[in-house]
Amino acid sequence: MNGRIDLKKAADTLKGARRVLLCTHVQPDGDAIGSLLAANALLTAMGKDTMMICESPVPENLRILQGWEEIRTPEAAEQATFDLACSLDASDLMRIGLAGGPFTACRDTLVIDHHASNTYFGQQNYVDSHVAATGNLVFRLFDALNVRITQESALYLYAAVSTDTGNFSFGQMDEEFFMQMAGLMKAGLDIAAASRVLHLCKQPAFIRLMARALNSLTFHCGGRLCEMRLRTADFSETGASRENGEGIVNHGLNILGVEMCFLATQENEGTRFNLRAVWPHDVSAIALEFGGGGHLLAAGCTIKAPLDQAADMMRARMERELNR
Ligand SMILES: [Mn+2]
């Protein structure tokens, strides 16, 4: 039976377990790693035996979170037995990747998540899509279980909730959200220092790559559409990785007057597109037309054509959308 449960039941389930396996999604972000470490600290404080697993490595900028080295690969869990497996911040079983093996092998499974698209893949599912981050749900569990939030855990939870709100600029922030933030400050969170490391500081290679992208910026449709193009040479000459390219497209969307934008990146097999739009436009439909997908306002696809040819196609398609 895949049941939806409330906070109290989730707290009771954690209380009743002795050995708990904790896992999160592949390519983890601040909410994934922050929630994982915070849940681990919560259970450890309650005297439980725990193991944390994640298929992908912890991103560099999250390695300021103490204890990140204790996060193991899923194979580490194969030799051990647990009486509860708990997944954090993943909307479906595919999303936890290889951690899905040890997760489903466990007798009891608990899903803690905030995605509206959650498939309730646990035996018990504490899912609330009205909170900004999974970290908000872990905060509630600290409260419900009467465990004090340490300064260390405050940093974990801050990493979680600030990541999913773009450092407090979007998402479902309400009174409870800021009451929780007040709780983190009370626990000794150094918010300015944490924000600098987690959100403001960038790798020099990223800034050099962004300079290239911004230099390629062109406007169309009277400033309602903009685009950027990155060539393979832009990566090799700046020392940037493909990972560094992520997020650059948002700088196009954050230009006053822009309603739609894209970043076209040259790849071996063709051209990769990151598409963005301001409501009520829809880039997921455009991405779908080119064999990709995503959300209404943020989507992606790959066109099997050289960079300039592919980018001209995308620009024409978006111009059509804006002139409808
Ligand atoms: Mn999240």
Structure write-up:
The protein has 324 residues and is α/β, with parallel strands linked by helices. It has 12 helices and 12 strands. The strands form 2 sheets. It has a 6-stranded parallel β-sheet. Strands 7-8-9-10-12-11 form a 6-stranded mixed β-sheet, sandwiched between helices. β4, α3 and β5 (109-113) form a beta-alpha-beta unit. α2 runs parallel beside α4 (134-144) and α5 packs across α7. It starts with a strand and ends with a helix. The model has no long low-confidence stretch (mean pLDDT 95). Bound molecules: manganese (II) ion. The site of manganese (II) ion has 6 residues, from loops.
**Name of the CATH homologous superfamily of the largest domain:** inorganic pyrophosphatase (n-terminal core)
- Distinct small molecules bound, one entry per kind: manganese (II) ion
- Give me the CATH architecture of the largest domain, please: Alpha-Beta Complex
Measure the end-to-end span: 48 Å
CATH topology of the largest domain: inorganic pyrophosphatase (n-terminal core)
Summarize this structure briefly.
By secondary structure, the protein is α/β, with parallel strands linked by helices.
Main attributes of the structure:
single chain, 324 residues, alpha/beta, inorganic pyrophosphatase (n-terminal core), Diaminopimelate Epimerase, Chain A, domain 1, 2 domains, six-stranded parallel β-sheet, six-stranded mixed β-sheet, 39% helix, elongated, binds manganese (II) ion
